[in-house]
Write the structure tokens for this entry.
Amino acid sequence: MRLTGRVAIVTGAGSGIGRAIALGFVKEGARVVAADVNLAAAQETATQSSVSGYVIPIQADVSRAEDVRRLMDATVDVWDQVNILVNNAAIQLIGRDAPCAELDEAVWEQTLAVNLRGPFLCTKYALPYLIRAGGGSIVNIASPTGFDKGAGFTAYSTSKGGLSTLTRVVALDYARHNVRCNAIVAGATETPLITSLLEDDETRRRLEALSPLGRLGKAEDLVPLAVYLASNESSFATGAHFFADGGAVMQ
Ligand SMILES: NC(=O)c1ccc[n+]([C@@H]2O[C@H](COP(=O)([O-])OP(=O)(O)OC[C@H]3O[C@@H](n4cnc5c(N)ncnc54)[C@H](O)[C@@H]3O)[C@@H](O)[C@H]2O)c1
């Protein structure tokens, strides 16, 4: 097992990719705090864990500093340390996010608050604990929309571009403390986040066609990469983006 003895915080662990990563970490021996704004969803993740008592659900809105501080303190109260942070929680306001001139300011504010302020706050308040533990690993869940596939979703894509930059800046600033920070660039993945897009057959086919493999991702597809980046196996990797997008990056 590759994460034995480690304590991980996974944000947005009540659904989709975050839930899959939380459960995958437990299978590798980690103890996990499943943080989510939706407590019932985080509790369901704990229920699905293969090892009882290894997932603690905590309600936290990552865009609120007081929630994030409470999340870190609660984790250390229970398990004494933080070794891994997965900044996964995000929203995409499909149907309201839009090209720039049509974008409602409130949609911009809400999206940036969760998707960029959230990872900033979680990183900021986890760092002292990661440093105290002698180092650690931060894994950010990025998106091709943060590079060149962002058209039509100004707020979401900009938030993900910011997260990619945050990944590199944190990697540079904290390497001397043995804190590594990397990003997984997830391709279109079948989760509740994009359910409304996938209901339209034409959009589904277009998203499937983005990948030369001809299919959408599953949340479980991202777990081995997350385990690798969280573990010592990736000890020489920092500030890097790892693509798990079905090859869409080549198109
Ligand atoms: N699904 C995709 O196609 C896709 C593609 C690229 C990147 N991503 C990224 O993967 C990550 C996970 O997405 P997903 O598809 O699993 O989404 P999802 O909607 O299935 O899960 C997101 C979870 O985050 C939680 N959440 C939302 N706002 C929160 C907040 N303020 N504080 C705490 N928790 C909050 C939700 O309650 C939910 O449980 C996101 O960062 C997303 O941007 C997803």
